[in-house]
Design goal:
This protein is α/β, with parallel strands linked by helices. The protein folds into two domains: 239 residues, Aspartate Aminotransferase, domain 2, CATH 3.40.640; 90 residues, Aspartate Aminotransferase, domain 1 (Alpha-Beta Complex). It contains 14 helices and 13 strands. The strands form three sheets. A seven-stranded mixed beta sheet has the order 2-8-7-6-5-3-4, sandwiched between helices. A four-stranded antiparallel beta sheet has the order 9-10-13-12. A hairpin with a 4-residue loop joins strand 12 and strand 13. Helix 6 packs parallel to helix 7. The longest helix has 16 residues. It is globular. Bound molecules: pyridoxal-5'-phosphate (PLP). Pyridoxal-5'-phosphate binds next to helix 3.
Length: 341
C-alpha cells in the first residue's frame, strides 16, 4: 500500500468519474461548441450566482487571467505574503500583467480590511496604482486556514468604497465551506472574480474554473487563448469537473477528520514540534533535529508513505480522496513506530 500525502492534487479519477468522462459529449471548445464544457461553465456560474465562467487547465491560469483582466501594467495587487499568486506562480503577475504585489503579513494567512486600507497607495506618478485585492481561501502555505464571510464582508465593503476589485483564489474554497457551512451563493456576492480548482480536494484530474460577470469572462476568454489555454475537446475533462462538483463535495469533511486524526498522534511524538492548527485537510509540522524534513521523509517512505518538505524542518501532509481510513490508520502506526526506533 503506497500512501501519497504530498498534495490533494495527486488523486486519480475514480471508476465512476472515468465512466462520466468516457461518456462525455464533446466538441471544439475554442468555438464554444463543447456542450460538456458549456455545461460545466454554466454550472459553476450558477453555483456562485454569477453570469459566466471559464474552464481553464489550471488554477495558476485562472488566477493569472483574473489579475490580467482586473489590472493594467504598473498597477498593484494587495495580497497576503504567503499567497499562492506570489509564492508559487513563477512571478506570473509581473510577467503576465506587469503589476507589482503589495504583500501583507497576517495570522494564518489572512489579512484584514484595516491592513488593506492602510496599504492602498495614494495617487502619485512615482507610485503604482492599487487596483486589486486577492484573498486565498483556504490559505495553502498558511496551513489550510479559512476566512468566514464575517471576516470577508468588511474587505468587500472597503473594496467597493475604494473602487478596488476583489478576487478570490478559491483553489480549496469547498474545504473552507465544509467547515463554515456557508453557501457558494453568499460567497459569490462578496467577490468580483473567483478561481476554483477542480483538481485539488474535489478530485478531478485537470482543471479550474474562473467565475465572474459576463464582461469579465469575455475578456478572460481572450487571455486564456493568448496564454495557450484554449483547449479543443475539453469536455472529457469538464465531465470530470461536473462529476466532482456533484459527488465529491460532501465528503471533504472526511479529509478534515483524517487530518485531525493524524494531528492527534503527532501531538504525542517526541520528534515533532510546532504543529500548526489543523483547520481543514492540510497539516504542517516541524521535526526536531537531528531529523531534517528530508531525512524524516526518507525514513517515512520506507513505510510506503510519501510527502514533501515545506522547509528545512517543516513537513506538510495533505489528506484527500485517495487516502482511506485504513491508510490513515497505517500512517498513525508508522509515525508512532518511527518514534520508537
Ligand atoms: C494549487 C493552488 C492553485 C493553482 O494551482 P494549479 O496547480 O495551477 O492548478 C492556486 N492557489 C492555491 C492556493 C493553490 O493551492
Amino acid at each position: 500500500m503506497t500512501i501519497n500525502l504530498s498534495s490533494d492534487t495527486v488523486t486519480k479519477p475514480t471508476p465512476a468519474m472515468l465512466q462520466a468522462m468516457m461518456q462525455a459529449e464533446v466538441g471544439d471548445d475554442v468555438f464554444q461548441a463543447d456542450p460538456t464544457v458549456n455545461a460545466l461553465e454554466e454550472k459553476g456560474a450558477n453555483l456562485f450566482g454569477k453570469e459566466s465562467a471559464l474552464f481553464c487547465p489550471s488554477g495558476t491560469m485562472t488566477n493569472q487571467i483574473a489579475i490580467k483582466v482586473h489590472t493594467q501594467p504598473l498597477d498593484e495587487v494587495i495580497c497576503h505574503e504567503y499567497s499562492h499568486i506570489y509564492q508559487y506562480e513563477t512571478g506570473g503577475p509581473a510577467f503576465n500583467s506587469g503589476v507589482s504585489l503589495s504583500l501583507l503579513p497576517g495570522k494564518e494567512g489572512k489579512i484584514t480590511a484595516q491592513q488593506i486600507e492602510a496599504a492602498i497607495k495614494p495617487v502619485y506618478d512615482w507610485l503604482p496604482i492599487t487596483k486589486l485585492v486577492s484573498l486565498e481561501n483556504t490559505a495553502n502555505k498558511a496551513g489550510g486556514s479559512y476566512y468566514t464571510l464575517d471576516e470577508i464582508q468588511p474587505i468587500t465593503q472597503l473594496c467597493k468604497e475604494r473602487a478596488l476589485k476583489l478576487h478570490l483564489d478559491g483553489a480549496r474554497l469547498y474545504n473552507a465551506l465544509a467547515e463554515t457551512g456557508e453557501s457558494t451563493q453568499e460567497v459569490g456576492k462578496h467577490f468580483d472574480s473567483i478561481s476554483l480548482c477542480l483538481s485539488k480536494g474535489l478530485g478531478a484530474p485537470v482543471g479550474s474554473l474562473l467565475i465572474g460577470d459576463a464582461d469579465f469572462i469575455r475578456q478572460a476568454r481572450r487571455f486564456r487563448k493568448v496564454m495557450g489555454g484554449g483547449m479543443r475537446q475539453a469536455g472529457y475533462l469538464a465531465a470530470a469537473g461536473i462529476f466532482a462538483l456533484d459527488h465529491h463535495i460532501d465528503r471533504l469533511k472526511e479529509d478534515h477528520l483524517h487530518a485531525k486524526m493524524i494531528g492527534e498522534v503527532l501531538e504525542t511524538l517526541s520528534y515533532v514540534e510546532n504543529i500548526r492548527p489543523i483547520r481543514t485537510n492540510l497539516l504542517f509540522f516541524d521535526v526536531k533535529p537531528p531529523y531534517t524534513a528530508a531525512s524524516f521523509l526518507e525514513q517515512l517512505s520506507q513505510y510506503g508513505i510519501h510527502s514533501v518538505p515545506m522547509g528545512p524542518q517543516t513537513v506538510r501532509f495533505v489528506t484527500h480522496l485517495d487516502v482511506t481510513r485504513e491508510m490513515v490508520e497505517k500512517v498513525i502506526k508508522s509515525l508512532a513506530r518511527i518514534g520508537q526506533a
